Queue: 4 jobs
Job 1
Amino acid sequence: MEGGTSQGVKSRTSSSAPQWAKKLASRNSQTRIAPATRVSRDSLGGANNKTLKERRSQTPTIVGGNYGKVEGPKSAQRGGSIMGTGTRPATAAVQEDEENSDTTELQKERRQTLNEMIVYVVFVSLFTIIIFLSRNNTMSFEYTQTLRDNLQIGNLFQGSVASIDTFWDYTEDVIVPLFATDALSNDSTFSYYQEGIFVHGNKLMGNISMRQLRVNGQPCRDVPGYDPSRSCFPEFKDSLSEKVFLKGDDSSPKQQSYPSAYVYQNASDLGEVRVAFQGGFSNYPGGGFIITLANEEDAKVKVLSLQAEKWVDMKTRAVFFDMVFYNDNLNMFCAVRLLFEFLPTGSVRPNPQFRTFVLNRYQWSSIRDYVVAILEFILVAFILKYIVEEIVEIAKGGIKPYLKQFWNFVDWTNLIVFGVVIGMRLRTTLEVIGFIADPSLFEAANLQTLGWYFDQEQTLNGVNALICWLKVFKYLKITRRMTQLSRTITKAIIDIAIFACVLLLFVLGYGVFGFMVFGTDNPEYMTMTVSIQTLFRAIFGDFDARAISQNDSLLGPIYLFSWIMIAVALLLNMFIAILTEAYMQVHNEDKERGSEVTIFDDIKKAMKKRYNALLKRNEEQIHAIQELKNRLEYGDEDNDGVLTRDELEKVVKDIDPQLLEGYTVDDLMQEVDMDGDNVLDATELARFRDFLEEKSRGFHEERKKLRT
């Protein structure tokens, strides 16, 4: 051992080595283990003498340049002998290869899912941004509220219009004055307001139209005391709609100051949409008997004439007031439709509707317009991309496996709704271009139709936004924990279906009871649908105990208390118990499967790998600085007290410049050589050592930050 060691030292201190290496090797040889403390080969090996190579193969070693990483013998890792000459069993090798292949495939799948999720989140965020940039809900609300206040909508719901007489009073006191000039119109300093009719700065576009729908008389039931030949007038149905204006005795009106008001016009003639308008008690088509009000004087005369001629009578079932306002400050239109439903009971019920929209959405007058247009173009590109992906998936996997996936139906629903919205957008844009080219089209009926399309587009966008955000659950399947909700519902689906049947029985029973007992006095049980809605609201504490007690002081409290006890104490807790049991089963399954490698584990692993690489490089930099400091001590080969450039080059020869932050020999010489003679004297060497010490402190500080 000693001979071999001394021979190794001699070889390391041969004349071919640099002077600093000779001195450094000599110092290291003095610090070697003393002979008295060395262990003999026999004591290491015992009866089984092992060679030094064998012992080193079994001893964990520091891999060159990989500080902090300990590796055992590779032969042991491969399953062979210590020397690495053994071979693995064929079955174990195949099994290990299969496991590695499966792991790689799972990693690829997780990464692909993560990439798809990131792209989809970008898509949803883009769609949401477009929605918010395209709407100004605050000003839209205030604009609508201004018109609601001016039309006294609040008073309408408080019963200000409850009969035919009060209907005409409202027409004279509220509708006709809309044509009168207001304070803004009387201000001569704003000449713009002298050019039309304005309501608080909102210009009335075109005329106000009145449209009436009537029903034909039907034979009445035979009741003692009534003339059997009389006619009755039921609720409105399209099949019972009157197309020829007749009075109660089936005679034509004797007095017709405005004959056009007594002629029925179809929806197509009026430019109305073919979709029936949904009122509170019936659905009404777009046709009817119509008359237009052009200005204040014209409105006064026509309203008084129609009232005198009893244009509205027992046959009347609906009267619409249609008007459109425009606010130039906001560039917003508001299509107003006031529906008054005349019920067979003799009462009148108001049903107003306000549709606020921007007519020309592509004015190119601001950066915002360009941004929205560009984002919409990108959104359409995304939609086309997803359509192509769905088609490719069908082509590759076949239609049957494709239809077995629930999320594929959601995807197509989403894409179809987007397609409908794009079609509506193209239609409305073309119509707006026509409106701009021909200002005479700015009539109430035309703008009402356009407002209907805008309203449907916004509704579909809202539905799409809901679907898009719920579809994020599709990409949360990357971990079992994130799919616990869907898996819990899937596991409990049968129990939930049975529970739903039980709940339906109770809801139908209590709903029918409330409808039959309280429906004539309490509006919350007026219809079967409303009665069921009231029951579900009561589950969450929204109920009027006083009102139901006033309807029936005995049955009311019993009905309400028993429903609360059954729905909350029994049914709701049963539903929670079903979900809890299913969740526990899912949780136990996850527990039995053990830890699962997820995409987040892959990310964590990658981050840890990056961290270890940074830490390793930092330690190598510290080691390189220390090595350079040690070499610098013996770098002066000729012992002249100075360090030439050639001597410095030998010192740093085999040290990677990247470990010194890219400093080369020339950079180091330029950094510390103050007089530029390519020779480092004692002062400059001290400056060099300070420079190295400063770099060492910086690397140590960096290591502290990495480890905290």
Note: Residues 486 and 515 are 37 Å apart (CA to CA).
Job 2
Amino acid sequence: KKDKKDKKDKEEEESAETVKAKAPSPTSSSKQFASKWFTSDTEKFSNLATGAGLALAVAFLAGMILPGGAKFRAALSHTGASVTSTIDKGWKSITSMIPESERKIAEHAAHEAEEAGLTDALVLLFTSIFAVTLVSKIPGGSPVLGFLLGGAMIGPYTTGLIGHVEGAKVLAEFGVVFLLFNIGLELSLERLQSMAKYIFGMGSAQMLMSTLVGATIACACGLAVPPAVVIGMGLAFSSTAVALQVLQDRGETGSRHGRATFSVLLFQDLTVVLVFMLVPLLAGPDSGSITAICGSLAKAIVKTVAAIGVIMVSGRAILRPIYRRIANLGKAEVLTATTLFVALGTSLLTQSLGLSMALGAFLAGLLLAETEFHLQVESDIAPFRGLLLGLFFMTVGMQIDPSVLMSNSFNIIVMAFGLLAGKLGVMAVCGPLFGLPLLASLRSGVYVAPGGEFAFVTFGLAASAGLLTMDVVNQINLAVVLTMALTPLLANLGSKLKDVLKQDDGVVSLQAKEGENDDLSGHVIVAGYGRVGRIIGDLLNEQLIPFVALDISADNVNAGRSNDMPVYFGDAGAETVLHAVGAAKASCAVVTLDTAESNYRVVYALQKHYPDVKVYVRAKDVANGLLLEKAGAKAVVPETLEPSLQLAAAVLGEMDMSNEDISIAVDNFRRTHIQDLKQLQQNSGGGLGYGLPTDMETLQATMDELDEGGLVDLVPKAV
């Protein structure tokens, strides 16, 4: 028996080896090769990398700041010079082995590529790939930080690999333009109006208090009042591009502190023209005249309001007809060109009026958000926005001068941390004054506290006017760049604040407080934050649609809050709870509770106390859906239908059906099902059936409307 068993095992091993030999071996790829070096799956390696990074950072800062670190700084400078010299000698020895004729051809081609900017483009692309990949693998690393460090490595003050820095800066400004254009597309005038308290109230308070704090500290350091005020105004600005990008990367744009951050940043963009007009006045003979300064401020305010009003009125009148005519052509590339023209044209228009390009792009996006073309427009600009915004971050990193940083390291680091502490304290005071909780104020403060790109322009104007020396300007600019680079790390620390400031009041701390959601208007109420409610909330958050979720499970509420979602503990069927989450100003409600009785109770309460709120509800079956319709629901979706259709579509795909045939089959089944629901609705007097038109006349009328707008050719064939 033992011999037979050994023989059988040997045959199985030989069979396995044969199968293994016949199986095609996977081909290696650059991604697999890179994963050996850049992948850190184990927690042990992550902790080791974090500890090593912190130790190196502390050692570097100590060497830069402490008086005894002069030898370290000299050694670092000498090492850098030696490495550069060695690389140069090695390159010359390699080129000397190439025949002279071939070398001249290569030198001529390299010269033409450099003149055309092709070399700079290749260097920027390679550096962005390399730096972002490395930094993203570090625990807590952010692509923004990778772009900033990559720019510092190739900037004119380090390796000098970029020859046309000014040209890169001009192109990089378009990244900020497209970012604000995209933000405008995702908002609406109604939602902007609901944030007016934050924009004009908290935004103005932040600018005034930050300017006052900065000017006071500058005066205490020995500066006169005019240059101190300029420094305070310049440091009051924050980086719109960096803050909003980090918010988007972390999925916090739709959170409460995300909306507050956006409001403050938008007000800062509105005040750019005021600051730029004040700088020459403070340098001129009228710097002590309050009348002259107030007159200039009034002029700037009128100019800003008039420009915004003209753009909004004219844009509303002409954009929709223009886009409809272009959509009728059926040429996607023409539609993309029109979008680029509108975004860049409006930006240049506002810049010519003394406002920021970012503000013009935001207004253009806000206008197109009201049209039926906004989804297509958002898709068209996505490639431009991501690439150019990364280029902008790299140009900011190029402004880091290691020689100035080393020679004035103590002053620069003190200014950087003083700036962060001061503006964070200002937000901690301003937020609660306008109804923002302390935790949300502090989390918003970590995005507002770093300096911004407008500080460079402000201090440049001040240096040209003779208010500030270039030595002071260079040091302050480096401090601002360092704070911008720290934004992703500060965002990580901000997310930890909810654990530090966590209240141990049990369920009470999870309930909505009176007045806590007064800033919301036109939002969505999600009743039930289980599996379905969580998916709906994530989708709304990605589209920057404000919502408030309610659940009677403390575990579900804590899970939502751990992801910075506005989830509260409370019974959605209670009028007091609905009032606390702003149901009177809500646009609609989605009910996704587990039991049919709970769903019915919430629908009834909403219909009784807030009849203007449209209610969409998940039904257990058709019979339950009819009861919910009678209770006041606008549309009911049976919970078994769509999951069944998704599974059926997957099975049909396995049966070698084409995607088009699958879409037709599923659509026909769904349409038949809706017709059945329509028949039930006619018998019961309700509106069961997704709240969508189901008769052919209404469907044909809808298609006719799309045809008039030129959208039929843009609609996917499956639809």
Note: Strands lie at 524-527, 547-551, 567-569, 588-591, 614-619, 635-638.
Job 3
Amino acid sequence: KKATTSFQVNIRQHNSDHNDQPIIDKSSNKPKEKTSQDSTEEEITYQHRSQRIAFTDLYSVYRRRYQLQHNALEFYDVNRNGTLIAFSSHDEREEVLSKVLSSPLPSSIFSSSLGGSAINYKKFMNNLRAKITSQWTQGKMTNFDFIMHMNSFAGRTYNDLTQYPVFPWVLSDYDSEEIDLNDPKVYRDFSKPMGAQNDTRVAQFRDRYEALEQSYEMGEGPPPFHYGTHYSCAAYVLYYLMRLEPFSRLALSLQGGKFDVADRLFHNVGASWKSASSENLQDVRELIPEFFYLSDFVVNSNMFDFGTTQSGKTVHDVTLPAWAKGDPKRFIRIHRQALESDHVSKNLHRWLDLIFGYKQRGHEAVTSLNTFVHVTYEGQVDLDSIEDPIERNSIIAQIQNFGQTPSRLERRPFPQRIVVSAIRGSTFDFNSLPSLANLTPPFCLVGAPQHIYLRCGAVDTCRIGMAGQMDSSVGDLMYTKGQLVGVGKTCALLLPSKKYIRYGGPNNGVSVHVAVTTARHREVNKVLSIHDGMHRGPITVAKPSLNGLWLATGGIDSTVRLWKYYGQNMQLQATLCGHCGKITCLDISTTFGSIISGGADGKILVWDLRTLTFLRELKHTSNAPTAAHAGSSKSFSVKSVSINHKNGNMVTLLLSTLCVFDINGNLVAKQHPDEVFSGNQIPSVVISTNCPEWMELGIVAVTGHMNGDVRLWGIDYENKILLLRHILPERVHSCPITTLRATGERQDTLLIGDASGKMSVCNTVKLDQLSPEELQSIAPHVDVAPDIENDEEFR
């Protein structure tokens, strides 16, 4: 259908001063090609395209509510793309769900439960929730991930603004120049809702409830409540995200075509906290997930003119807390560190009780000052029974605009997370290490993440996929059941199926072979299938996705091609053109829907896996002096590219220079300008780890060098510089490193292969493997566990 909009939006000048200077209107100097009415009315065509998800690509399906009615389903494919569908009735929804669950779903969370009998959806989800809760309490899952899981189980989703995932305000200090996350005083009270954070407001909200209760008992008015607003609704989501599209446009639609009054816009984090916690009786809002991972939403990169407040301040970028030092990324890092802190871990269950648990309704909700308007609760409204269209539309409008309370998950208190340390008292507690592993960055010592200690284990020679190769170089590696498996230079491993792909032959295609013997395939190197003519020339690089369902190939014909690989079939999905020479390196992430390619032309291009289109070119500059003589770094081939599957960051290697870019192509860190490699110290390959940004001590990249060195790198986020954190002391390799892989549940194992065919495994050492002298040197850097018996927070 077609619809017209009348958005009235002003754009800030790109060269304008951000420090509260007035915006100069230069519109009178521009030639007018349209009437004033034409300029404010833009015709938009909304195109509703059908979508198709193959059962083999379905990852999960969840029951959802729409307008507080149980009539929706949300489907997620293997790339974690979500599609929310509202049906006309509950029965229709259940019929579709039954059909889906009775079909073969090999890639879904239900696959292990599929058998002769149909899946009991409710029982399956209850068991899954119990399993996830157990993992969280034992420290095997981050607080962020657990809150996201609880939101999902309670019906919250990114695909519905009225039921957007809800996260807690974590901190209460937004004024200090520095913040100590070990100080309990900087945190909010997790046992109380936002309306009860301030004693003055507590009395006012309690008086309101009692007055409404008296009226209700006399048969007048609605059921009593403490708050006439909610902690989460579509307007609050758009309030936070108005600087980002498509939320900017949605915010404009909500406000009748123009942004709200400047004083009511989200412009200061500290001011929003004060409003929600103490100053405004109509404001008890919580946060959204973006506060813990996305710095872009506080930056007005689209240069909208939001106007000026009554105090004369121009609303542009969000004003951050003093301890953020004006850096949005620093704000997000510290905020996420606060969420994962010991204090929050020990108290988060109390907030969960309020939002998803036994304090959500009934007597416990009343005593906790945690009740809202009755129509926001599940089961309180039956739209099908309302015949009056005016009343029905009024109820729907209230549901859509004033918030929906999540489904209640627990009628008993949520369990408390166990918080441990590697040291209890004056001795090391080795039994605590499994609980600490999940919050330890890659290749860092569990219990003492400031330290990196790798030790070389197995050493072997690559023999698989070597036939017909010009040299003995190792092309790819994996570690399975204690066995190190390597394949030749022109090979790439399919990890889930334990097969490998061979490319580079005159057939301009690939062949699939057995890499590890199984009950079905007992002969290594056996050819399983051959796929000819995949490019117009020989294939120069191939990279399978981690789940083995996608294959990206690059050829001498300068194209990147994307293939769907399932069974014995190789189906072409897209041909991506943008390079001017052969493709030298590739990586693919189904988690973030990204493909990155490097070519002999020096270009590093990023592609969208979901839309199969070009996104951007990364502006990688080299420190090497030879680049300056050539006039452009594009004179040199890109050696290596790699994607971080936790945050979408990309590591690149051009000449001898390393760079790290975020998912939007912004430079995160670069090798220090004074640190220039030369001779046989030049890096030959680089891989990214899955280290998230908030783990500042973590290893983000590993490089292999021409002389056989292997180096581990961290980031100085303040100066955007890559820091050399560790060099493997054992010189197992003495020729160019050709491939690297970080493996293990938390990436604590490094696989290395070189040009001579030698392969090695390096493992991160555990505390209980260190000598007494080494433990003594580490002890001063380890946080001591709290005294649970005397800690009020554990009572």
Note: Confidence is low (pLDDT under 50) at residues 17-46, 627-634, 787-795.
Job 4
Amino acid sequence: MCAGIILPPSKSTHAHTKDDVFFQHSRTLNISSLTRTSCYTSTRGHAPFGQVLLAYPVNRSVSMRAGDTIFSASLSEGELPNDATSGSRWRNMTFNAYSPSGQVEGDLVYANYGSPDDFDALAKMGVSVENKIVIMRYGSTFRGLKVMNAERRGAIGVVIYSDPMEDGYAVGKTYPDGPWRPADSVQRGSVQFNSLCAGDPARLYSNQSTLELCGFEMQDVIPKIPVLPMSWADALPLLQHLSNPSGVTPPADFQGGLPLVYQTGPGPARVSLDVNNDIHPGVIHNIYATIPGVDYGTPDDRMVVLGNHRDAWVFGAVDPNSGTAALLEVSRAFGTLLREGWRPRRTIVLCSWDGEEYGLLGSTAWGETHASFLSDKAVAYLNVDVGVSGQNLSVHVSGLLSDVVRGAIQAVTDPASGKPLSEVWDGVMGDLGSGSDYTVFLDRLGIPSLDLSFRQGNAPTSYGVYHSVYDSFSYMQQQIDPDFKYHVVQAQLWGLIALRLASERVVPLAPVPLALDLHRYIAYIQALFDGTQCAGQCTHIHTRVRKSASSRRQHSMVRGGGLDLSPLQDAVARFEGAAMDAALAREIAICSEERVQKRWQRARGAGVGGLNGVRRVAPPEVCGPKRLKRLNEALRLVERAFLDEAGLPSRKWFRHVLQAPGLYLGYGADLFPGICQAIRDGNLVLAQEQVGVCSSRVLAAVTALNSWMPLPSAHSSLVV
């Protein structure tokens, strides 16, 4: 369900300039501390948005027999005296959403992270997972894809555990003495196959079926075998009772952080896995508030969307409530600006998503349902999920938003050092894959997006008690952000970016950083082809591709291989030329100058237009409404041009040709994914076809960007 409120503008109906609003409020948005905020919505606005497929645990068990040894896993999280909510009954409700119910028994096999390469390594050792129960550790690959990989190789059940190497004592002190995962902490989570299609697996809310939207039947995007998560304390006895019957030493990277030599099995451990989950249709609730812009309700209205999900596996103090607190603070600050007479140039929509943890259900449903509207109106989508789990800023962003993000980072202060945040930030801007609510906006609709978070240093994972009962207020206050200072900075940063995007005369979407990204993406293809950049699915691929390419011409091919990237390189060079065109830079500068435009408006209102007082014309250096709209639309539509209506090969829901979640990564981004996945699959013909597809979309982006230029006519320089 979507329930909405509209925050009324002040009595003033004009958009204030950045002189009288932006510079007054941009440094802090009047956010100096967190306040106790209430969110009001009218029950009159509540109506079912549509049903989705939900899952809840009923009961489950895991037991092991190895010779005379019998072990039963607790599958529960212990109560901690200094964590006020850890005694909740939900500590006993550890499960993986969308795992089917089932009871299976079989020999146990350890498959490391469960990537295709890990299963290939097992096959080389002579270890089969067919009719076996597979145990894998969290990390590297999204949990649902671990299950997908095991299922495709004939496994009958899966256990996924949290290894201390990823987020436990191998990283640092464990909770309650530190921020990392204690022995009996369990990571819950969805096991949907998220890299195949996002959103409700059943598409119960939609007029289109899962097959029509995703290219897969519902049963192909969720597991057919039972799955359970487990703590390392429960996993340790299982792993201790594995041997190495093949006699081949497992690869070194199979070794985790537990005090044992990791063996693959199968056996002698024999495991019984019993899962009983209740999977049924249910209603979710998206809540949104709208701050109308000056053109609200007209065809010229454009909007900036902010989103955070509020559903959590248990209490979710970090994920997602640190982001939810920031969203409420941003809304409060905007309310203050409204009362002071401000009105945004562009409409702002504040969204609280439901069902994210199951597979981005709420945001995806909203995006699909309103796809045409969003494509016509949206300037950008700004996401915060895990708002604060540490003190290190993490930015993942579309290239077009890079400059506006950097500008906001320079304007806020790092609480720990007292320095500008830009001086302590590492400067890295990552690429967007999936795993949070930006997915439908970027990967499906081509809307520039970002995801902001404060994280723990260089740890392999975001924080230690992720998706457990210990993700609590006690954890946040004791281990992460005791004074909630980084919550404040998160709200400031998020709000500043939104304010600029909603208020600036020229929408701050910068094509030059995107052009630089495109060159980096080509380098990624080259590195992948050379075998120097590979994750999760690399075995024997490069040899196969080069053999199939032996008869192809070598001009502009990837370092002596057989993939001709010259069409893509040429297209990227053309985009770079358009992005760095001095005439475009001049146009942006002219149209951005507020005071010049205000003087022109006053002169035009007095009948002083430059040509006998005709008000429809003006000197060419003045940027009037038509000229400004043409420029803003050109910048806004660049990202849309990267959409291929046919979708990625074998993944039609994902339409963005520049980035998508890696097929076997899930969260992590793949770049030029149609090309790169074809390389990994050893399909040179498809890879070359995708070079053509990507080249055409980059050239379409060139056309979109160049549309800022007026159509040639005798008076085009005078029409504003």
Note: Residues 684-706 form the longest helix (23 residues).
